[in-house]
Structures are given as C-alpha cells and as structure tokens.
Specification:
single chain; 2 domains; elongated; 251 residues; 3-stranded antiparallel beta sheet; transcription regulation; DNA binding; 10 helices; Rossmann fold; WH-like_DNA-bd_sf; 7-stranded parallel beta sheet; DNA-binding transcription factor activity; alpha/beta; Arc Repressor Mutant, subunit A
Length: 251
C-alpha cells in the first residue's frame, strides 16, 4: 500500500472510530510500526491528526487565530450561544470564557437581565460594558494573544475567590476518550481552575469540535455537566459523548 493510500485509510478510520492505534495499523497495512509512526507524524504536521501515546486522534480544526475563527460556523455558534444565554437566571454569578461562541453569547443576553458575569476575556468585558444591568468582573493576568484571554498565576489566584452558578467553557476538542482539550497549556490550566469555581460547567461546541482533540487536555468529560451543541451535528459524533455520561443539549 502506498503512503498516500495509508494516510487516506488512517483518516477514514479516525472519522469512523475516533482513534487509531499504531500497532493495529501496522498489522492492517503490513508495514512496520515505525512506518505508521512516520505517517502519523506527517499527518500531524499537516494539522490533520493529534498524536497521542500509541496512536492518534482526530485533530481539532478550531485552533486557528481568533480573527479567522470568527468567520467559522457562525450560524451554529449563534444557535449554541442563544441556548446558553437562556440558561442564565436573574441574580446568578456566571463565568464566561473567551472565544467566538462566548462573544455571541453575551450579545444574546436580555437587556433587562440582572446578573454578574466573571470573565478573563477583555473583549467579553468590553462587550458587556454597555449592558445596563449586568455587573462585570474582569480577571487579569498575562494576556494570551491567540484567544485574547488572561492566563497565568495571577488569573488563577483571582479565580479562587469566585463561587459561580455557571461556567460557560470554550474548548477546541470534545472527545469521548480524550476528554476536553484546548491548544495552549496555560489556557488549559485556567479552564480547569474556572470549572472548579462553578456549581455547573457547560461546554459550548459546534460540530467541528466533536470527536476531536488538541494538544493540551483540560480534563475528562466529567469535568463538565452539560454540552451544548448545534442540533445539526451528526448523531454519530454526539452518541459517544452521551454514552460517556455527559448530558447533551441540542441548540
């Protein structure tokens, strides 16, 4: 089997099964594991797979710069954002992550909503500055420019003083076995810290983030209680997540 044929078969297996193992691929293709690992390295360099110990997972497409991500899956993100906004009750303290779906979420808040939004995203805070009844708490720290959010020790320390009702988490990957992931080490740490400060964590994701993984693991799926996803997402992507125990709400 030629290299291109092996790579195509690997991608097809990832789309079907959600993961591949180098040993199984070696036996299937009749080549050495070193050859399979080389194929996986090349696919990873192209951003098409996420390598893990022993094999690979589908790579998330949601790791592009913020300006590019703003134009991706806009309608699906808006539906997810609208459903998330409807979950907020008057008087609640809500943590809102950075990201493009979160930016749409705050646009969906009712103008008469009385609540407190805690965020480590300067752009989310600015978007809420004109809201007449939402109090905004902005968490500072080192600015991670890719996602325009605060990260680092100062941000984590500030979060330790928050007790929130809800945390709306943005991710780049939701995978039944690999869990929740993102593209930056410090951002993953901050997301874990935020989840620990909320009574309920709600993950916001469009279909492109399902059955996918990024370089840095935030935690297992049970770090969250709910996943909001666009209703148009294929059932084959949603089913493994539900079977893993995460409640899925379709928007």
């Amino acid at each position: 089997m030629l290299t291109d044929q092996r790579k195509k078969a690997i991608l097809e297996a990832l789309a079907r099964d959600g993961q591949v193992l180098a040993g199984e691929l070696s036996a299937r293709f009749g080549v050495s594991e070193d050859t399979v690992r080389r194929d996986l390295r090349e696919l990873a360099a192209q951003g098409r797979v996420q390598r893990v110990h022993g094999g690979a997972l589908p790579a998330s497409a949601a790791i592009a710069p913020l300006a590019e991500r703003e134009d991706m899956d806009v309608d699906a993100k808006r539906r997810v954002a609208r459903k998330a906004a409807s979950m907020i009750e008057p008087g609640q303290v809500v943590i809102v992550d950075g990201g493009t779906t979160s930016a749409l979420l705050v646009q969906c808040l009712a103008p008469d909503l009385v609540a407190t939004v805690v965020t480590h995203s300067p752009s989310i805070a600015v978007a809420l500055a004109a809201h007449p009844a939402v109090e905004v708490v902005l968490i500072g720290g080192k600015l991670y420019k890719h996602s325009v959010v605060s990260v680092g020790a100062a941000a984590v320390e500030a979060m330790s003083h928050v007790h929130a009702d809800l945390y709306f988490m943005g991710v780049t990957g939701v995978h039944a076995k690999a869990g929740l992931s993102t593209g930056d080490y410090e951002e993953a740490y901050v997301k874990r810290a935020l989840a620990a400060r909320a009574a309920e964590t709600v993950v916001l994701a469009c279909a492109s983030k399902l059955n996918a993984a990024s370089q840095y693991r935030i935690g297992d799926l049970d770090l969250a209680q709910t996943l909001i996803v666009d209703a148009a997402a294929p059932a084959r992507l949603i089913r493994p997540i539900e079977e893993a125990g995460l409640a899925v709400v379709k928007a």
